[in-house]
Design brief:
This protein is an alpha+beta fold and 277 residues long. Helices cover 66% and strands 10% of the residues. β2 and β3 form a beta hairpin. The chain starts with a helix and ends with a helix.
Length: 277
């Protein structure tokens, strides 16, 4: 049978009181030992060994510190446990456990609130359609990687993939067909790039891939292979009729300090240059 909360808290108080008594008793024993050592030396007219006095002094100092710590902390702890015990004793029969359980409930509530907050922060960087990162998440990661590239002197490139006329397609096709195209592109990007590259859906018709450590020529080569992979196996719902996919690779320039700057440069690239990839 489990002990009641008031018995448990009273037991804590008794244990701490016993601890105070033990340390005070030990301190008294150390004082007596020093007095006996000096008395014996005076009686027999002989000097006590230095090591003995040093050892007794060290033990006494440690014991005194522990005793003072126990004396000053014990009243606060005993009073706290006594208050909990008094609350449990004054509570109606059958509800004493509720007073103690409130502490557990409050802790669980705080943990659930923290978990919900972290999940909300994570979801605000996720695109709900594809499960990739969204523009906000890509902006945050881009700034982090810009700072890393500046420190380490490494290259950084952005792939911009565009679905030509996606807005028109989304309006004319069934919702499941447009969604199938978005998921097809997202799955291809996710499986094609390296695990540490950053993939995101920037807008309804644009996808971005941040290639870490990739120079312009390397990024262009990856872009060509990525475009072929996207076009190779169109979703069945499209009936084999894929829209025009344009992709362009742009290496970050030292003067560019934000995601919007490199994205603007990629968007302003002539369409003829994008068709070469």
């Amino acid at each position: 049978m489990a002990a009641s909360p008031n018995k448990i808290t009273k037991g804590y108080a008794q244990e701490r009181t016993a601890g105070v008594k033990i340390w005070c008793g030990a301190l008294a024993g150390c004082v007596v030992a020093i007095a006996v050592a000096y008395g014996a030396a005076a009686t027999f007219k002989m000097s006590s060994p230095n090591w003995l006095l040093l050892a007794l002094g060290t033990v006494t100092g440690i014991t005194l510190a522990c005793a003072m710590r126990a004396v000053f902390r014990s009243p606060v702890r005993i009073d706290t446990t006594g208050n909990v015990a008094a609350q449990n004793e004054s509570a109606p029969e059958g509800s004493q456990g509720k007073i103690v359980s409130r502490f557990d409930e409050r802790r669980r509530t705080q943990e659930e609130a923290t978990t919900s907050r972290l999940e909300a922060e994570r979801l605000q960087d996720i695109d709900p359609v594809t499960g990739l990162g969204n523009r906000h998440g890509l902006q945050v990661r881009t700034m982090q990687e810009f700072n890393r590239a500046d420190r380490e002197g490494t290259a950084l490139s952005l792939l911009l993939l565009e679905v030509d006329g996606d807005d028109t397609l989304a309006a004319s096709w069934r919702a499941d067909v447009a969604g199938a195209l978005q998921l097809h592109i997202a799955d291809t990007l996710r499986s094609f790039v390296r695990p540490y590259d950053v993939v995101a859906r920037i807008s309804p018709s644009e996808f971005g891939v941040l290639l870490l450590g990739a120079t312009g020529p390397t990024a262009a080569s990856i872009a060509r292979r990525l475009k072929n992979a996207v076009m190779a196996q169109p979703p069945l719902l499209l009936g084999g009729d894929m829209p025009v996919i344009r992709i362009f690779a742009v290496e970050r320039e030292p003067k560019e300090k934000s995601f919007d700057e490199i994205l603007t440069r990629a968007r302003s690239t002539p369409i003829s240059d994008r068709e070469l990839i």
